[in-house]
Design brief:
The chain is α+β, with helices and mostly antiparallel strands and about 160 residues long. The chain contains five helices and five strands; from the N terminus they run ββαβββαααα. The chain folds into two domains: about 80 residues, Ubiquitin-like (UB roll) (Roll); about 60 residues, [2Fe-2S]-binding domain (DNA polymerase, domain 1, Orthogonal Bundle). The relative contact order is 0.16.
């Protein structure tokens, strides 16, 4: 077993220190060490987007990044979207428009949508589809997801 290393970073506005093994992915650190289970393991190779989080303002697949690489960084996960019991507008839009079903891909779509709307508050349908292209869904067929993003962006 490799020697654990203490890594300090910010998650959803909270400073954390966690002992991680050099081989642990950020996804494993979030889920296993910090008990933030929103990001899901879908493929373990960066193809499905179920594990998408925002690190220093950029979306990443947390299954492809190492926990030890997070020293001093700012991480935003799906758990950081709601304000107590009040859902983030994006979460509410996904519920209102049927943009979720089984829930495996939903956290990744939500985080990719947060990133998109922070950088482009009024995207076209094409821009939404391009931004969400790294997230795969096997249930909804994407139209309800696109409508959810358009609803919160006011572009439907």
């Amino acid at each position: 077993m490799a020697k654990r290393r203490i890594v300090s970073f910010e998650v959803n506005g909270d400073n954390v220190e966690v002992a991680v093994e050099p081989r642990q992915t950020l996804l494993e650190v979030l889920r296993d060490e910090l008990e933030l289970t929103g990001a899901k393991e879908g493929c373990s190779n960066g193809n499905c987007g179920a594990c998408t989080v925002i690190v220093d303002g950029v979306t990443i697949d947390s299954c492809c990044s190492l926990g030890v690489e997070m020293e001093g960084r700012q991480i935003k996960t799906v758990e950081g979207l709601a304000n107590g019991t009040e859902l983030h507008p994006i979460q509410q839009a996904f519920i209102d428009n049927g943009g979720l079903q089984c829930g495996i891909c939903t956290p990744g779509f939500l985080m990719s949508t947060v990133y998109l709307l922070e950088n482009n508050p009024h995207p076209t349908e094409e821009e939404i589809r391009l931004n969400l292209a790294g997230n795969l869904c096997r249930c909804t067929g994407y139209d309800k997801i696109i409508r959810s993003v358009q609803a919160v962006a006011g572009t439907s």
